[in-house]
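Batch job 17 of 40 flagged for manual review because the log was empty.
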Amino acid sequence: MAAAIAGVAAAGVLGLAGCGSEEAGSSPPPTTSQEETTPETTSPAEENAAWFTSVGPEFQSLQDHLDSVSTAAGASDVMELTAQCRGGLDDVTKLQSADPLPSNAELWDAALDDFQLAFSYCVAGDYTSATAYLTAGGAKLDRISDELP
Protein backbone atom coordinates (compact mmCIF):
# COMPACT_ATOMS: atom_id res chain seq x y z
CA MET A 1 0.00 0.00 0.00
CA ALA A 2 2.74 2.46 0.93
CA ALA A 3 4.56 1.61 -2.30
CA ALA A 4 1.39 2.31 -4.29
CA ILE A 5 0.90 5.69 -2.59
CA ALA A 6 4.56 6.54 -3.16
CA GLY A 7 4.19 5.58 -6.83
CA VAL A 8 1.14 7.83 -7.28
CA ALA A 9 2.93 10.71 -5.54
CA ALA A 10 6.01 10.21 -7.71
CA ALA A 11 3.86 10.17 -10.86
CA GLY A 12 2.18 13.38 -9.73
CA VAL A 13 5.53 15.07 -9.20
CA LEU A 14 6.74 13.89 -12.60
CA GLY A 15 3.54 15.16 -14.20
CA LEU A 16 4.03 18.58 -12.64
CA ALA A 17 7.65 18.76 -13.79
CA GLY A 18 6.57 19.21 -17.42
CA CYS A 19 4.05 21.98 -16.69
CA GLY A 20 6.53 24.88 -16.72
CA SER A 21 6.76 27.10 -19.78
CA GLU A 22 9.80 28.71 -21.31
CA GLU A 23 8.21 32.04 -22.24
CA ALA A 24 10.39 35.03 -23.09
CA GLY A 25 11.29 36.97 -19.99
CA SER A 26 10.79 34.03 -17.63
CA SER A 27 13.43 33.34 -15.04
CA PRO A 28 16.27 31.08 -16.05
CA PRO A 29 16.59 27.75 -14.29
CA PRO A 30 18.41 28.04 -10.97
CA THR A 31 22.15 27.66 -10.95
CA THR A 32 23.82 25.30 -8.55
CA SER A 33 24.15 27.99 -5.90
CA GLN A 34 20.44 28.87 -6.21
CA GLU A 35 19.10 25.32 -5.99
CA GLU A 36 17.06 24.59 -2.94
CA THR A 37 17.98 21.63 -0.86
CA THR A 38 15.24 19.11 -0.35
CA PRO A 39 14.97 17.71 3.15
CA GLU A 40 15.30 13.97 3.37
CA THR A 41 11.98 12.23 3.67
CA THR A 42 11.29 8.98 5.40
CA SER A 43 8.81 6.51 4.00
CA PRO A 44 6.03 5.16 6.23
CA ALA A 45 7.67 1.74 6.14
CA GLU A 46 10.96 3.25 7.33
CA GLU A 47 9.17 5.18 10.09
CA ASN A 48 7.42 2.01 11.23
CA ALA A 49 10.69 0.03 11.17
CA ALA A 50 12.44 2.69 13.28
CA TRP A 51 9.49 2.75 15.68
CA PHE A 52 9.48 -1.06 15.93
CA THR A 53 13.19 -1.06 16.72
CA SER A 54 12.58 1.43 19.54
CA VAL A 55 9.76 -0.61 21.13
CA GLY A 56 10.98 -4.06 20.11
CA PRO A 57 11.93 -5.37 23.57
CA GLU A 58 8.66 -4.23 25.15
CA PHE A 59 6.64 -5.55 22.22
CA GLN A 60 8.39 -8.93 22.46
CA SER A 61 7.77 -9.02 26.20
CA LEU A 62 4.08 -8.32 25.60
CA GLN A 63 3.93 -11.18 23.09
CA ASP A 64 5.71 -13.46 25.57
CA HIS A 65 3.24 -12.54 28.32
CA LEU A 66 0.28 -13.14 26.00
CA ASP A 67 1.66 -16.61 25.20
CA SER A 68 2.27 -17.31 28.90
CA VAL A 69 -1.25 -16.16 29.80
CA SER A 70 -2.63 -18.62 27.27
CA THR A 71 -0.47 -21.44 28.64
CA ALA A 72 -1.35 -20.70 32.28
CA ALA A 73 -5.06 -20.45 31.46
CA GLY A 74 -4.93 -23.76 29.61
CA ALA A 75 -3.29 -25.37 32.64
CA SER A 76 -5.79 -23.72 35.02
CA ASP A 77 -2.83 -22.31 36.97
CA VAL A 78 -4.43 -19.25 38.59
CA MET A 79 -1.27 -18.09 40.37
CA GLU A 80 0.80 -18.21 37.19
CA LEU A 81 -2.02 -16.63 35.20
CA THR A 82 -2.18 -13.71 37.63
CA ALA A 83 1.62 -13.29 37.55
CA GLN A 84 1.67 -13.27 33.75
CA CYS A 85 -1.20 -10.78 33.60
CA ARG A 86 0.70 -8.48 35.95
CA GLY A 87 3.71 -8.75 33.66
CA GLY A 88 1.54 -8.01 30.63
CA LEU A 89 0.09 -5.00 32.39
CA ASP A 90 3.63 -3.68 32.99
CA ASP A 91 4.45 -4.19 29.28
CA VAL A 92 1.35 -2.28 28.20
CA THR A 93 2.20 0.59 30.55
CA LYS A 94 5.69 0.84 29.02
CA LEU A 95 4.33 0.70 25.47
CA GLN A 96 1.70 3.34 26.24
CA SER A 97 4.45 5.70 27.40
CA ALA A 98 6.34 5.28 24.11
CA ASP A 99 5.45 6.88 20.80
CA PRO A 100 2.61 5.10 19.00
CA LEU A 101 2.90 3.27 15.67
CA PRO A 102 3.48 6.10 13.15
CA SER A 103 1.23 4.72 10.43
CA ASN A 104 -1.71 3.81 12.64
CA ALA A 105 -1.45 5.46 16.05
CA GLU A 106 -5.18 5.34 16.75
CA LEU A 107 -5.54 1.59 16.22
CA TRP A 108 -2.28 0.90 18.11
CA ASP A 109 -3.48 2.94 21.09
CA ALA A 110 -6.86 1.18 21.00
CA ALA A 111 -5.17 -2.22 21.02
CA LEU A 112 -3.05 -1.22 24.02
CA ASP A 113 -6.17 0.06 25.81
CA ASP A 114 -7.83 -3.32 25.22
CA PHE A 115 -4.79 -5.16 26.58
CA GLN A 116 -4.64 -2.89 29.61
CA LEU A 117 -8.26 -3.70 30.41
CA ALA A 118 -7.72 -7.40 29.71
CA PHE A 119 -4.75 -7.71 32.04
CA SER A 120 -6.47 -5.60 34.72
CA TYR A 121 -9.55 -7.83 34.63
CA CYS A 122 -7.32 -10.89 34.67
CA VAL A 123 -5.46 -9.72 37.79
CA ALA A 124 -8.85 -9.02 39.42
CA GLY A 125 -10.03 -12.55 38.58
CA ASP A 126 -12.67 -11.55 36.00
CA TYR A 127 -11.59 -13.99 33.30
CA THR A 128 -14.67 -13.51 31.13
CA SER A 129 -13.99 -9.79 30.68
CA ALA A 130 -10.25 -10.44 30.37
CA THR A 131 -10.88 -12.90 27.54
CA ALA A 132 -13.15 -10.45 25.70
CA TYR A 133 -10.56 -7.67 25.85
CA LEU A 134 -7.68 -9.99 24.95
CA THR A 135 -9.64 -11.05 21.87
CA ALA A 136 -10.42 -7.44 20.94
CA GLY A 137 -6.81 -6.31 21.37
CA GLY A 138 -5.53 -9.28 19.39
CA ALA A 139 -7.93 -8.51 16.54
CA LYS A 140 -6.63 -4.93 16.42
CA LEU A 141 -3.03 -6.14 16.32
CA ASP A 142 -3.96 -8.48 13.47
CA ARG A 143 -5.35 -5.50 11.54
CA ILE A 144 -2.04 -3.61 11.80
CA SER A 145 0.32 -6.58 11.54
CA ASP A 146 1.08 -5.89 7.86
CA GLU A 147 2.39 -2.45 8.91
CA LEU A 148 4.98 -3.99 11.23
CA PRO A 149 8.39 -5.07 9.93
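Reviewer: the log was empty due to a logging misconfiguration, but the result itself is present. Helices lie at 2-17, 44-74, 78-97, 105-124, 127-144. Unflagging and moving on to job 18.
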